[in-house]
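User: Okay, second chain of the day. Same drill as before: sequence in, structure tokens out.
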Amino acid sequence: MRFASLGSGSRGNACVVESGTTRVLLDCGFSVSEIDRRLAPLGLAGADLDAILVTHEHGDHLAGAARLSRRYGLPVWLTAGTLAASRDTGYHRVEIFHAHDVFEIGDLQLHPFPVPHDAREPAQFVFSDGDRRFGQLTDTGSITPHIERMLAGLDALVLECNYEPELLRRGPYPPALKVRVGGDYGHLGNDQAAVLLERLDKTRLNWLVGAHVSEKNNTPEHARMALVAGMGCDDDRIEVAAQDEGIGWRSV
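Assistant: Same drill. Structure tokens below.
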């Protein structure tokens, strides 16, 4: 199993997960042409995908999903709440999943889990090929015991580091938006990411990628420092996914 980020941040998010002959796109916050452009360095095109997974309805995760689905005849997997909140529901095919039910797409087993975020029915995922486990946690304002259980013992993790608290406090956002971002249903700050990592079983963790880093309220350096603090060590397998470049293939 391997994964790659096509880019992560407030201007768009997408991640590819592959196992065997199965490739799924986790979120589609870019246009069809941009997805194809970002897939090309990975040796892929939209036609090589088998499905699109959507975590929630916010545009930086959903904007291109319907058009990509129609262009390449891809099923779109999402919760009923996310479907109800979608503006463009002209998907090639819709597959509804429940955030507590395990399901399979080809060679991948998916373990969704609900998260506290200001969306209709948001979910994040742990992927498994039967041997290795890769997880993503972004777009959550707080950590629940269930989230901690889901992320324990992973081999790779993409983890939100959206803001540095002091930079958010002094930043350009209006007060209401600052409250929303830093609230229990907003985004994870660097300090929260570090605390979560301290609590997790990390004995198998080979890759840790910081994601959804704000361009106005954070820096890649601040995010990586938080991840290093949470891990208790510095390692070249601790990375931060950029908005414009993402990261290339990483084998789980």
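The chain has one domain: 2-243.

User: Thanks, on to the next one.
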